[in-house]
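ping. complex inputs:
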Amino acid sequence: MDTLEICYMSAGDLSKLVKNKEVSPVEIIDAHLTRIEATEPVLNSFITLLAEESRTAARQAEKDIQAGRYKGPLHGIPVGLKDLYNTAGVRTTSGSKIFDTFVPEEDCTVAAKFQQAGAILLGKLNMHQFAYGPTGENPDYGHMHNPWNPEMVTGGSSGGSGSAAAAGQCTITTGSDTGGSIRIPAALCGIVGLKPTYGLVSRWGLTALSWSLDHPGPMTRTVEDAAITMNVIAGYDPKDVASAKVDIPDYTTALTGDVRGLRIGMPKEYFEAPLDPQVRKAVLDAVSMLESMGAVVKEVSFPMFNQSQAISSTVLMAEASAYHRDLLEKDGHQLYEPVRQRLEAGLFISAADYLRAQQARALLDQEGRRLLDDVDLLAGPTEPVTAPELLASKVMAGEQEIGVVGALTQYTRPYNINGFPAISVPCGFSDAGLPIGLQLAGKPFDELTVLRAAHAYEQATDWHTRRPPI
Amino acid sequence: MASEKQLSREEFDLLAKLLGVDGEPAYLDELYSQVRGVYISAQNIREIDVTGAEPDMAFIPPTA
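pong. complex structure:
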């Protein structure tokens, strides 16, 4: 098989070939390592590439599969983990040279689950330092570059995960989403990014940013692959105090293609916020597509959306500063200056203001639940703009020039605040060839409906088959 | 300390000293700008009527 074809195959398709012994994990890993060698000088997706280790693991996987010990759809499939997921024996930097030589003794829960499923760890993926930024800048390991235009950001903080999946460097990647850090790079890099319900995927063994807002999740080129990955990584973990004890369905049962009768609400406040007209059109066309497939679409009102930036920033900044207080005191001078500023700014938030933000958060949560009593999903843009230029501090969203940080987290933050599941799925490209994402959010623990709608839309279009020009 | 008025530079400098935050003047200028943004967010939240709302407690996952 052609190397590039292997690299752009989904896990769903590759797994059938692996199971039937038509392609070997060794061939798969070799293809990806060749692709990485060709593209990594431009993209800088990886902090640590495990070339020899992954080849060794691939040979073992090949042996196991030949012997009939097939473990499931991720057996022999390359996985990349954002470099704040602890991996036993493999350095885990959180994107900072301060932890350049930190080697965990134990896998995080998610890494252990991938291992048990037979997935092959290809490497640790580049990220915004300490996950504290939505662009994918990293002065210690190099900035990440968007495969669709390397002068543009990948988005962050899971920037390397976004570029690696989009460019065919890795089949499955993972991110962590605190204010949008899975969905932002997913939208800007043209892939699927699922932020699951809070508590559904274990946070144990991940470097935290904000305890109550952090959500680990998959970043993949197809919705099916996100579902397959969730089957592996979702589930109760007693080591994570926030882990939810809920039954885990087979997420691939959502992939029916049927959205007849699905009720979709479009918050009017989304379209009153700054928004690029090409993004607006692509998202409205996407929702119209779903409507033509039988979904019932209506306008809804989500007034607390307009408070989400203030609520999210207050909670996030206070928690991040608390978590990193010792690091700030000891090694603050080594931090990327914007990250250090955010951490120090969080120190100024009073306990009373933090708790007031948590009260407001409860109201936003209640408003979301009321909306989702009336509709099954909330739909809108993932991002109000396409990928900004690297290191830009401002961006044009329609007629308005706004700060990049505020822009990139404009639509994502509400679902970190309330913990509801939210996915970004590609829904088009700008005239400049940059990806646009559609965000669908659902009820807590109703990933099945979120995945169903995203998959149906994806399969009715060809955005997910496009490849970046790299 | 912050109220409807803007956080003054003097107030910021005092708070920074109390919090053990220091740095080059250009760094502190930028940090001051960020902290003013933090206070604006806090002010916006203070304008929300949260009567009867208990804080969402950390570490309790949403129920289905």
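Residues 420 and 443 of chain A are 6 Å apart (CA to CA).
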